[in-house]
Amino acid sequence: MGSANDYARQPLLPPSDPPPSSDQSFSSKHHSNAGLESILSDTSVPFRRRLGPATWIEFKLLFHLAAPAVVVYLINYVMSMSTQIFSGHLGNLELAAASLGNTGIQIFAYGLMLGMGSAVETLCGQAYGAGKYEMLGVYLQRSTILLSLTGIPLTIAYVFSKPILLLLGESPRIASAASVFVFGLIPQIFAYAVNFPIQKFLQAQSIVAPSAYISAGALVVHLVLSWVFVYKAGLGLLGASLTLSLSWWIIVIAQFVYIVKSERCKYTWQGFSMQAFSGLPEFFKLSAASAVMLCLETWYFQILVLLAGLLPNPEIALDSLSICTTISGWVFMISVGFNAAASVRVSNELGARNPKSAAFSVVVVTVLSFIISVIVAVVVLMLRDVISYAFTEGEVVAAAVSDLCPLLALSIVINGIQPVLSGVAVGCGWQTFVAYVNVGCYYGVGIPLGCVMGFVFKLGAKGIWVGMLGGTIMQTIILVWITVRTDWNKEVEEAGKRLNKWEDQKEPHQRN
């Protein structure tokens, strides 16, 4: 009775409503989830004998979620970087303009839209676990409507990017060039508005690999089109940013075609519905809380770089911090993949009324992410004296980077835990609470402490980073404490109440 296969034969769905044999995605996933809960609940078998089969089931579920998610986020990251590289070959001014447009303006829209899309992650994940499949399509449409409306004020900000940049102290020459680049990113805003709800809609069903394949194909097309439009057609900065926008729309269209045509989505996508226009104000509240939660984290680390620019010798500080944050950004993509996996697993299990599976999933994904981050941190420390030469040949910068590497390694370890716990928070629907925690820890403790250590105690970039890292550690400790003390049976009940509220008291979808 102790094997994973024995347990996995017990179906999650009631015998009166079994999934069709042709729809293997529902069958295999739900059987695995039911098997996990059965193993964890079977007190007739010692826990140490149940631990192996349970861990194996959870590991397989996490791997199929996290690995493709990491690929998707890495490819998105590479697409923006490649646009910067193409722009950089036009000249130093173009490189500065593209960098400012990408990291200063576009990242704001990206964080806002991705954060708002997390509301879909909570609701779709829990509805899918509960077997209320038709509601996923409604949530997808509601979120797309709200994000598209949010895109309107963002578009206005993009149009007036030049005076905004001048107000922030940028030189007129760079602000002028950056505004041209930003104009070409306006279509990308609305691609985000559709893409992130679609992405969360698919992730909630553990459909992640198709998005990875689509993103990989779009990256190849993006590189070819960038070369054609920027160099051959001579469209310059505007051509580079328009190509990036077009590439995002290619991803959106391909994913939507997949949803409409795929057998795996035939129960969750049932066409456009007027129900999508109901309950938008309440849906906006959850989306706004999700956006605030994510944006507060995104802006926090941008402020680190901005503060470094105010130091007495800003060039070396900015160069060394830029290298460290770039390395951290690449590693962070792995954590984001685990963040998505944690959110999907927890929300699915809560919706399916499997409290033990939800709690067990949190432990497994956190431990796995932590182990990987520790390994990467050790590698960074081993290469601390040479790692900067991948970016620059300057010995002074190399010494500064080597000096910051212990902090970089500690940040990588913390990022192996914190994003996963944020994913758990999204899966449970705790976005509003975590937003308050982020405000207190990041902006009430981290930034003031960083300013004191960096400027008052004259510790420079290292002092700023240490202080802000203190805020991150405090936030992580609070999330760990809350997660450890969570009553998962209560969370199951809360998930049920949330689904009843958001589906307008409709009955679960019954399949023929």
Automatic annotation (TrEMBL):
Segments of skewed composition (Pro residues): 12-21
Instruction: Tell me the InterPro entries matching this sequence.
Output: MATE_euk, MATE_fam
Key words of the record: Membrane, Transmembrane, Transmembrane helix
Annotated region (Disordered), positions in chain: 1-30
Q: Where in the cell is it found?
A: Membrane
For this chain, one GO molecular function annotation is: antiporter activity
Q: Which GO terms describe its cellular component?
A: membrane
Main location, first listed in the record: membrane
* CDD domains reported in the protein's UniProt record: MATE_eukaryotic
Instruction: Classify the protein's membrane topology as the record does.
Output: Multi-pass membrane protein
One GO process term, biological-process aspect: xenobiotic detoxification by transmembrane export across the plasma membrane
Q: Does the keyword Membrane apply?
A: yes
Q: What's the domain of life for this entry?
A: Eukaryota
TM ranges: 61-79, 145-168, 174-195, 207-229, 235-260, 283-307, 327-346, 358-384, 396-421, 433-457, 463-484
What is stated as this protein's family in its record? Belongs to the multi antimicrobial extrusion (MATE) (TC 2.A.66.1) family.
List the protein's name. Protein DETOXIFICATION
Q: What organism does the record attribute this protein to?
A: Acacia crassicarpa
